Amino acid sequence: MHNLFTIPLFLLLSVLLVTAQAAEPSSQQLTSPDGSIEVTVEVRDAGVYYSVQYKKQAVIQASRLGFDIQGQPQLAANLEVTDVQRNTTHQAWQQVWGERAEVVDHHNQLSISLQEREGLQRKLELVFRAFDDGIGFRYHLPQQPNLQEFAIEDELTEFALAQNYHAWWIPAYRDQRYEYQYLKSALSSIDVAHTPLTLTDDGIAIAIHEAALVDYASMTLRNVSDNHKTLKADLVPWADGTKVYAKTPLTTPWRTIQIASQAAELINSDLIVNLNEPNRLGDTSAYVKPGKYMGVWWEMHIGSKSWSPGADQGATTERVKEYIDFAAEHDIDGVLVEGWNKGWEGEWWQRKPTFIFDEPVVGFDIQAAVDYASSKGRQLVGHHETAAGIAHYEAQMERAFAYYQKLGIHSVKMGYVGTRLEGKEWHHGQFMVRHFAKVVATAAKYQVMVNAHETIKDTGLRRTYPNLMTRECVRGMEYNGGSPDTGNLPNHTVIIPFTRGLAGPTDFTPGIFNFDYQEHRPYNRVPTTLAKQLALYVTLYSPLQMAADLPENYQGHPAFQFIDDVPTDWQESRALQGEIGEFLVIARKDRHSEDWYLGATSNETPRQLSIKLDFLDAGRYQATIYRDGEQAHWRTNPEDYVIESKKVKAGQVLKLDLKPGGGAAVRLHRL
Amino acid sequence: MHNLFTIPLFLLLSVLLVTAQAAEPSSQQLTSPDGSIEVTVEVRDAGVYYSVQYKKQAVIQASRLGFDIQGQPQLAANLEVTDVQRNTTHQAWQQVWGERAEVVDHHNQLSISLQEREGLQRKLELVFRAFDDGIGFRYHLPQQPNLQEFAIEDELTEFALAQNYHAWWIPAYRDQRYEYQYLKSALSSIDVAHTPLTLTDDGIAIAIHEAALVDYASMTLRNVSDNHKTLKADLVPWADGTKVYAKTPLTTPWRTIQIASQAAELINSDLIVNLNEPNRLGDTSAYVKPGKYMGVWWEMHIGSKSWSPGADQGATTERVKEYIDFAAEHDIDGVLVEGWNKGWEGEWWQRKPTFIFDEPVVGFDIQAAVDYASSKGRQLVGHHETAAGIAHYEAQMERAFAYYQKLGIHSVKMGYVGTRLEGKEWHHGQFMVRHFAKVVATAAKYQVMVNAHETIKDTGLRRTYPNLMTRECVRGMEYNGGSPDTGNLPNHTVIIPFTRGLAGPTDFTPGIFNFDYQEHRPYNRVPTTLAKQLALYVTLYSPLQMAADLPENYQGHPAFQFIDDVPTDWQESRALQGEIGEFLVIARKDRHSEDWYLGATSNETPRQLSIKLDFLDAGRYQATIYRDGEQAHWRTNPEDYVIESKKVKAGQVLKLDLKPGGGAAVRLHRL
């Protein structure tokens, strides 16, 4: 009797407790370590909502979470909390390479396990992390009987922004992929934008993006009301309309919201890499080496040479040897050869790809080039242009990377030129995510570093795969070569570090010294001064930096010394001052010496900057300042520059005078 | 014999001449009176192209002209020049009302008559006018056998811009019609934009728009290559896809390109009205009277009253009498009553319209209100909200205007709220152009001035129909009342005079003095200081200006004196300084006194302006300056203002200190 009585009572109590929990909404709070950021997660009958405050001000108002699953009811409402877990992480980890050697990961985590009360009783876990520089959250769908293999029709995640912020964005779902100049508008004027999307207002800067995009679709942000400030996750679909093909257990990418009191601070955030998994490749020191490269490419963009074999062919053994000679005289590690392999004839971007990735074109002896480079202590940089033909590439990929390994080539630049992959898939859908994961893994297997153009956007996977060095995914220097619209505006390079750059390294390819290349490109120009070209090596971060111009264009330019000197791997980095679209000053400390480097860039507006050198360590420094000359102007006189040298120390103020479209680059050599 | 011989010879010579002309491309030049602007029109075998230079710099490169006609070959190529005419006009004309009393029209004109060499032998005439502030061109299709009644499938007009300018634009083909905050981007990032589209670069500002849009479709501008700087006319289609239903003789609207050395100068251009036909209404002095009005509307937008009949009804006889009392104590001519007529119950914008335009709602005695207004020397302002139901409105329109005339109401505000007209037509297609022409004509017949919201964009028809006073067609003050996205950003009002304002008068409805209206609108705010609200009466031109706030909110505010004083009809207007999105200073001289008024407005950025008073006439002026107080800030302290008085004269410099989101309004009273 005793047992028979007590057991049902215990069960009854459990049911009552669960019912009580379900009847009133559950609200969980999560606070960042310094308390500046607060997240609230509410589980109501109607759905699950999160909201975010920064310094007690609303940033994200109650915003919906959940999924539409194909052939099933929506997974969003009527959920009960089955478990709540909290923990705190405070650790420092070493980056193989990066903006800083040591990254601090200090966050509080809240995990909420949910289960549907009725019907399919599906399980869903939400994980939120609050850092002092923003938050991340992701969904986890554990293995479960009623959710095994499935298709995601829609992710319901919303970002109900509290203010109609100023927004800096590029449009999604357009043919040029990610390669647009940025629009500035009210948040409410966005239709659908790629991430990172950067938002500003007095005293606050916000960037919405994602981290660890692995086997899922890229998130774009759609204004869900034509007149509203709520953005909804709009996953880039497959050609068949499905957003994501999945099976449990599924962990989505982190949805990230970086928050700072001013835009330049966003650049100092490590949130994206902190939300990626640690290095899975182990010791990559044999082949993963940040560095500088140059190569055969700009002469094709400005029309003096061609990717096609024949009389105008850019990729010839002789020409490549000229590049190698120059590289060897300077601190340039690699020489890229675009158009070296078979398949570049004519309008290669207009047809089904015919590239052969392990056969050099007539006129280019790859073994001779490799040997010559090696004799000079340099390396060739390989090139895989796919023209968006994925099947054609994947069929050769293993062989192609093996070929490079055999030749001793440890670096490849890749391209996916085309409006759709395989003529139908967006560059930002799960199709590309899966393909590019294969590329990175295959490259690692054959000890090759990857620098990819026109690929999926960066979400910090470089932490997990340190051979994934850099990527374009930006309207880069090439648009100043042969684009039909004259090229990028002068403000472009003072927008992208605050937007695209938040995602990760950018292979923008700075370093154009010759502004007089209009013979075949009468309407194009590089919209900076020469001094600003140098500054870009500091303000646009990439572990592989190109010296993009032709060797002959660097001759006689003492300013090339800065490119010789500037490192590509950093002990520390600090964005010091800046306003989006206006100007930016960044200082970085070399990872392998005591020297600091500083880059300052402006848009069309000339400006005088006072930079407090309080980032310097104790001791004296020899400052070599590469600045705009008195008459410098991006349009009329870009090559007017001055090199000055003086001694400085911490705490002093460095004054820099930037001309229209100008900049300054400073080497601070520790004495 | 003699006669028989000479006649064929004469004919033969004519044919030879014409053939000779057709064989080589014809190029015609047109220059503006001061020579700064040059137009070249080339008739080549492949088509007809125009280009534009400003101060010897290319602005528009060779750009295509022509039409796609339904069921016929393209009318664009294989044309021969049959006649070329030139003339010069230099005249001054009086505006019934406007930014200035006298407008100078000084232009050179080039008319080129063309005919197809073969096939249908259709005729087409091109007319170009070059002014010192820009150009206009239009097509004329004369009556002809092979082109009688026809449908235009596409207008081929292109604007091949020479540079990738900075662009300020609103997107076309969106549900909120014309009511967006502006986007700033590179020209190349535009997809499809409404006009006026404003473009800037160092030393040049350009606005592309149209003039005299009569029985045609509105022109939007589409980037014809995703990566390009050539915009193509994209006529807003009917629901059936046709762009324009036409018959010959057809004269298209003028395609206009205003050009100046700086953006503020665009505001001083009279090009749009100069390209419209003279007054067709004759003497309208009996009822066309610029002036100020207030009325029952803002209390609905901020949610304290309702358009619906019942307990919260805004339109009551008693309330309207309060407005009339206030108006009578001040220099406010009219009192608007929104929601006065039957049909406003509930969510009127969601259903087929039920409005009755000549029956007042219970609780509002229109005759009593009219009589009371009359006894105080004021007028009621009528209101026609159509909810985009055109047939429903047109069935009552004649009766509705007659009703107003009978009551002595000479002013109506109209609305076309809805995403499509009749549930299917865009607000900017030929359907709306035709409807609105009927409205303006009917209003004139019954001696009523028109102030239209959500209607077709302005193209200067006010010159031809002086009862067409003003229109909204902008994201106006109402968005600061109840919009879901918090409202307009502070920079909005320093963008629209450089963009939307170039089209014509704007019923933005400034004058909010009470910033504490968040009881029902917790997320909305007016994004200016109070002093900036005053400045908007000068910087945003409209012949009918509203004092938009509630009478009780003006009580105790000496600043209302500026609204009392400020005229709405001007002898002269001059934009003195400004940068789009940053700040603007405009001075205007009263048409009926010797007084000048000045408005200065800023975006979020505080700034100090030095304004040379060289626009003043000889003599001394009493300056009354309504400026931001020391602690003024649009967000935290908008009502902090100072009124100062001092004597000034021409040539002196007036210094104004604008706070964040602030402004200054100055009355300069001639002593």
What's the CATH H-level homologous superfamily of the domain at 277-473 in chain A? Aldolase class I
Q: Would you report the number of β strands of chain A?
A: 38
Give the helix tally of chain A: 12
Oligomer: homodimer
Structural write-up:
Among the domains of chain A are: 25-87 and 100-163 and 212-255, Beta-galactosidase, Chain A, domain 5, CATH 2.70.98; 277-473, Aldolase class I (TIM Barrel), CATH 3.20.20.70. In chain A, a hairpin with a 2-residue loop joins β2 (37-44) and β3 (47-54). In chain A, α7 (390-407) packs parallel to α8 (430-445). In chain A, the strands form 7 sheets. In chain A, strands 6, 7, 8, 9, 12, 13, 15, 16, 20 and 21 form a 10-stranded antiparallel sheet that branches. In chain A, strands 1-2-3-4-11-18-17-14 form an 8-stranded antiparallel sheet, with no helix packed on it. Residues 1-23 of chain A have low confidence and may be disordered. Chain A contains 12 helices and 38 strands. The first copy, chain A, has 671 residues and is α+β, with helices and mostly antiparallel strands. The A-B interface holds A 162-164, 166, 170-171, 174-176, 180-189, 191, 202, 225-229, 483-489, 492, 523, 604, 635, 660 and B 162-164, 166, 170-171, 174-176, 180-189, 191, 202, 225-229, 483-489, 492, 523, 604, 635, 660.
Question: What are the salient characteristics of this protein?
Answer:
alpha+beta; disordered N terminus; ten-stranded antiparallel sheet; homodimer; TIM Barrel; Beta-galactosidase, Chain A, domain 5; 38 strands; 671 residues
